[in-house]
Amino acid sequence: MDAHRPIPPRLLRTVGALPEPGTLPEPYPYETVTPRREGFVERGGVQSWYAQHGDEGPWLAFAPIFQIANSHMLRGVLPWLSQHYRVVVMDLRGNGRSDRPDTQDQYSFDHYYADFVAVLDRLEVDRAAVVGISATAMTAIRLAHEQPQRVSHLMLVGGWIERRMDHPKMVEAVQQNLARMRADWPAYLDEFFTVCFSEPHSTKPYEDAVRDGWAAQGAHVAMGLAGWLGNDMRPQAQALRVPTLVIHGDKDGRVPYSQGETAAKLITGARLVTVGEGGHLLPARDPVAFCRMVREFTGLQPPRSTWVRAMARKRKALFVSSAIGLGHVQRDLAIARAMRAQQPDLEVDWFTVPPASAYLEREGERVHPITARLANESRHFERMAGEHDLQAFFALRTMDEVMARNFMVFAELLQQEHYDIVIGDEAWEVDYHYHENPELKRQPFVFLTDFVGCLPMEEGNEREAFLCADRNADDIEHVARYPWIRDRAIFVGNVEDTPEVPFGPGLPVIREWTRRNYAFTGYALPFDPKSLADTDALRARHGYRRDEKLVIAAVGGTAVGAPLLHRIAETFPLMKRAEPSLRMVLVAGPRLPREAFPQHEGLDVLPYVHNLFEHLACSDLALVQGGLSTCMELVATRRPFLSFPLERHFEQCIHVRKRLHNYCADCAVKFRELSVRELADKALETMAAPVRYKPVETDGAERAAKEILAVMENRHWAAG
């Protein structure tokens, strides 16, 4: 009944339309890791779900949180923690994958505690660091008191130490809350999590938390809350002799800061870490800070380490390259080679994942072994894509689990090894978490990008517009407060390639802000166009005949472009009838099976083409997705092409098209607006038409390399 109440405007603007009540977030509970073991424990006919993530290292057990949340809340921290610990999570009865009993007698502190102990017994956890968040801090304290041999470390995060109900006003307030839970669940969720996330720009953790709460029902959560009330763990806390860390935000509006202070005073030897200006749920709002506190408190250290004397260290750069497609890494390699040409003793390590890492290894580059532990950005984007449709802003917004995990791996590497400089090409995870945790920056950092500003794509979509502006404002405030995080920000392009529109209502115009905060290097090509001017030689090298009309269709290194390739394959018989000498090559990439495409004489399907730009440079026509790199390479080699920007992809539809327009090369076609017959006719017409592109600058990689090396040398301030 409560689920059918009107959705509060603030919730609707931030979270959007909600699914059916009781629906768990998808994927659940995590996107980037799967359990080592999982199952259910049953007590009194109630089943509680649990999971173990990670199969080596010490045990780390999260006591099950209050029923308004579930294990999904730990998505920012568990994927990295499970690389070093055997992590135990469970859903408390009333939410997640656990049962939802309908009677109050099934919701009590004794049941919650016994469920947790049953999971530890099932997994044969003999000794663990135990984390208690919010109300479940009382569960953790009770375990440390009743089974002290089982608890190696105790962490209380924004925790209650007592929920006594001995004051009439408190009883009245709680009764009002319970009534609101039952009567208007959406409004209660909005109010509850707005209080929890008091920090600015917390729209994503707020959204996740609301969806976690929506997986339960107000009536069940009300019974769940009643089970927490009336308990007092202060006497047990006073008797503890376990290493204890108490973490509490001084602006926690859900659990008073005084609760953390009391716990720290009562537990012998406890250490209190105050999160200045912090709200209630640190693991969800500040996952990097939380993971660092867990690691440091539990004493996690690598088994071996090496310290190299400063003057014996080789010059080394770490290049963090976005793996969404192959365009970034090809231009990054061109920049790295230009850097080594100017600084011959410089070594470069790469920090990326397939397909970018495979390309680099084939080019003889060193991809750091630690990257095997990274989550794959491309898989995330593929999961978010529809039929030639990718809401790129929301794909970036929901990549926070990937970003937190990958940044923690990055931070580990930077703690273990020395680099003179870090270069990040659209390394959003490094840039964001450095700004949120500025104390972690240990060496110069250069940030590269070819677009600035997330822009809404759906007219009338107030939620998209609001969230885009919020993300942009967060970035702007980061740069203003910590300009030294980016020792240099490089825009891979020219000033006129940036749009003259505001970041959002009341925010700066993108072009003017970018002009003030970036250096411009022009586009960075991975080749010299003059070296590819002899198309006959290129065709001979790659097995194409001089007398055939060559059409190459390519969609990058992900499976997002599968619908486009299939549509292009359908045009082949029509084009072949009009142009008998036609040969078409579909570059399907490593993620699309060749057998999924039709077989025709003259139609080739290739899983991977190394240095595809050489093949494109000798084609008569290219049919490509709307990514910047491939389009700019075609402009540079003056090849006719059609591009098919993904629908709702703000970068391809706005930023890339703006740039191509500047080069007189806006050849965009809307995927859904042409039939197969019309697309075939359009392709044949484009193949026969002359090109009139403006030339692409050829020194972009060298200019970018010069900017980066100037940062590393740190002598811009010296007199010439």
Automatic annotation (TrEMBL):
GO terms for molecular function: hexosyltransferase activity; hydrolase activity. InterPro entries: AB_hydrolase, AB_hydrolase_1, AB_hydrolase_fold, Glyco_trans_28_C. SUPFAM superfamilies: alpha/beta-Hydrolases (SSF53474), UDP-Glycosyltransferase/glycogen phosphorylase (SSF53756). Residues 69-282 form the AB hydrolase-1 domain. Keywords: Hydrolase. Residues 554-699 form the Glycosyl transferase family 28 C-terminal domain. This is Alpha/beta fold hydrolase. It comes from Ramlibacter montanisoli.
